[in-house]
Amino acid sequence: MPQQDLSLLTDFYQLTMMQGYFFQERFGEKSIFDLFYRSNPSGSSFSIAAGLDQVIDYINNLTFTEESIHYLDSLGVFEPAFLDYLRHFKFTGDIYAVLEGTVIFPNEPIVKVIAPICEAQLIETALLNIINHQSLIATKSARVNWAAGDDMVIEFGLRRAQGPDAGIYGARAAVIGGCSATSNVLAGKMFDIPVKGTLAHSWVMNFDSELEAFRSYANQYKASCFLLVDTYDTLKSGLPNAITVFNELQEQGTLPERYGIRLDSGDLAYLSKKARAMLDQAGHEKAIISASSDLDEYLIRDLKLQGAKISLWGVGTNLITSSDCPAFGGVYKLSAQIVGDTVIPKIKLSDNNEKLTDPGNKKVLRIYDKETGKIKADLVTLVHEHYDESHPLIIFDPISTWKTSTLKPNSYTIRELLVPIFINGTCVYESPTTFEIKAYCQTELATLWDESRRLINAQIVYVDLSEELYTLKHTMIKASRVSF
Amino acid sequence: MPQQDLSLLTDFYQLTMMQGYFFQERFGEKSIFDLFYRSNPSGSSFSIAAGLDQVIDYINNLTFTEESIHYLDSLGVFEPAFLDYLRHFKFTGDIYAVLEGTVIFPNEPIVKVIAPICEAQLIETALLNIINHQSLIATKSARVNWAAGDDMVIEFGLRRAQGPDAGIYGARAAVIGGCSATSNVLAGKMFDIPVKGTLAHSWVMNFDSELEAFRSYANQYKASCFLLVDTYDTLKSGLPNAITVFNELQEQGTLPERYGIRLDSGDLAYLSKKARAMLDQAGHEKAIISASSDLDEYLIRDLKLQGAKISLWGVGTNLITSSDCPAFGGVYKLSAQIVGDTVIPKIKLSDNNEKLTDPGNKKVLRIYDKETGKIKADLVTLVHEHYDESHPLIIFDPISTWKTSTLKPNSYTIRELLVPIFINGTCVYESPTTFEIKAYCQTELATLWDESRRLINAQIVYVDLSEELYTLKHTMIKASRVSF
């Protein structure tokens, strides 16, 4: 994140609640908050966690400058003693999180914050903002890259992103989800992502002829040459001119190892097949056909099904905004208070069933099929619960509780997903590079059954509650209801 | 924008093209680019221009730091002479733009850049990014606020925005489009927007009882008190407890002028009517009922049609992401070269008809009906064309050219929309405050006929080409086609 003061990147009610706690001298009291989400974007059966590295930066730099204090003072709502507390604010709590690039499912904590209530409350909004955004784009990217198969996908969306950060951190998330490069130079610099791109229509229009424009570009850039062929007419003008230039380069012995064309309008299936034939006939079987123009996972899948001869995809708007589902519904809910050594579980009921929360200090166990390494289910339990892989394990659906499944001893393995990131305010975790996270994400995606990767109507992966957690939750629901 | 180096907030191909022009010694040659968009978001018949103030900041601060130069050097693509040019880069061109808050329509220039080709090319991506984002959110906000009528709408979306900037600049754009306040404290500070909010579910859950939580909050904040009533059960628990606290405040003589409740789940029409009745019966006719929970313009309209007793709307996700259309399709196209004193019009053809561009150095005239002050049509003309309101004016649709309309002398008025912002690299325009822009936007919205403000299937407003521009365009199309 930019090194500016982001202490005020929060909702106003966080500050009014903080002051409330402060004057009730409850500011030392610890609370546990879970960050989780309720449904996957874009009809996916899973999501990809992303944004943790920026959360770490945010927490490490979280102090209120005098300018911010002065602004808060000017609102006439905050008392001097509270402002003085903010002046010396530092995050002192613990944060556990699922690592970036991990496959995640609804209703399981992906971040857990254990901190004095004021601190836990302040950071809610920024954590949600950062993780919601990057997890959204990483998930969309995983879908787009899945549709593209082994083809390379480049993130092209900066101009349509929702502001500079959306372009910059969106490019990072797109790489985590599987993209290989970006057009965004600043993101390239910040996250060491290869930057790609050649020329725009304006280049072609700036020359007296398309041929001259292509020739000029190709002679300038000898390492790689992709010519945009649709400024005037793809098949009648762009392709013939590109082939002329490729032939000239070949004669000069300067044809680059990687070269080809970019299609940016028209019917990409039809044009790519025609272009392939023209290139092949001219002896340019190695020329790569790349395409851009309102691509998403569905269009890429359909183009490939129709035999489009495209092997390099530039995906812009629909990826950088996750256009069919532009928000990731992460929420941040109180699950317990800690008073002294006692954990007091808390629950929110709500008029909407799906807004019920899971109480207590929890952990998330991922259960894999030992033979295939695929995910069987996730199990949310209380932290003190212990499971032994050499024992049978009975899991059940928390809504349709009669749906049970018994895993045989030694047929499964268990992995705990929440990893310590901050302990007592100190960061204890070092983020991998963006490409290391991408590589880890590929191994994560391989733990999903194919049925759960399908773009449409994918098989859901169950997130179960342990019997102890289920019993705690339903006891608390009943206890609350009788009080009305 | 943050005071960081945003010179690299651009697509890689801008830099490769710049270097190409640089070594051809064409870097002094001027070009004209138009920034325009092709269709309105969310089925609207219009959009609201926004983002210009951040474009001005970007241009004013546009220099390459040594760190950026070093990064570009590391890519192995750029020559020392070109990097040295970047080291001394400064924008020296002219920028004309439609003012923020102006009602705009597809296919008319909303920004025009006249600058040396390298400069015009570099700034393309950032201009599109900033203007696309803020115009999108301002447009969505205008729709949401239209649905809310005279009710106040507060922007609540930071946690679901696509990164920090999307939350910050999205809040600004939401105010331009009609919102009255935001929950986003940093946006409040940066743009002098009132910040609002009271308490979250976690506050209620952190107390032993809801009543105690409400009482505690109300006693802390005496100026305004909105209690969130859906943590356990809106009608059985939240409302009765809120009324108890309002009664206590009344007895103590500390009931604030502005007070009420917030509904955040359940059926808002049903609950608000029940809540209104309960509050009224308890003598709290003045208590305001506010609501949040997945609101957008359609739901607000339907709730109001069903007699929901809500007069304050907190709109989050759907506004801050423009969820039903999360990208504004602004593009930036070369329209002319200037060589010496000669303007050479340029056109892009493309395989998609709607991607044809309008050539030449243009201006945008808005034609109002003199009697009503409503917009008759916009007319895009070449800059040298002159129109006299005392003469009849014949306008025609540029697609269905047989559709003509003759405006009688003195029955219409003409206003030029593009205003000089930068001349020779110097900013000649001072942005109003965000609330001044909001006020201007309200007057702009009043120039639309009601038929064009409808949320669904709204009447389009025509953007016509002058006969001279139309003739130029079609002559150039024909001339290009014969060369294939």
The major β-sheet of chain A equals: 7 strands, antiparallel
Number of alpha- plus pi-helical segments of chain A: 16
Strand order of the largest sheet of chain A: 13-12-1-5-3-19-20
CATH superfamily of the domain at 12-138 and 325-482 in chain A: nicotinate phosphoribosyltransferase
Averaged pLDDT of chain A: 95
Give the chain pair forming the largest contact, with residue counts.
Answer: A-B, 113 and 113 residues
**Share of helical residues of chain A:** 25-40%
Q: State the CATH class of the domain at 12-138 and 325-482 in chain A.
A: Alpha Beta
What gyration radius of chain A follows from the Cα positions, in whole Å? 26 Å
**Strand count of chain A:** 21
Measured distance between first and last alpha carbons of chain A? 46 Å
| Oligomerization | homodimer
Percent of residues in beta strands of chain A: 15-25%
Question: Given the C-alpha coordinates, what overall shape of chain A results?
Answer: globular
CATH topology call of the domain at 12-138 and 325-482 in chain A: nicotinate phosphoribosyltransferase
Q: Which structural class fits the helix and strand makeup of chain A?
A: alpha/beta
Low-confidence stretches of chain A: none
CATH architecture label name of the domain at 12-138 and 325-482 in chain A: Alpha-Beta Barrel
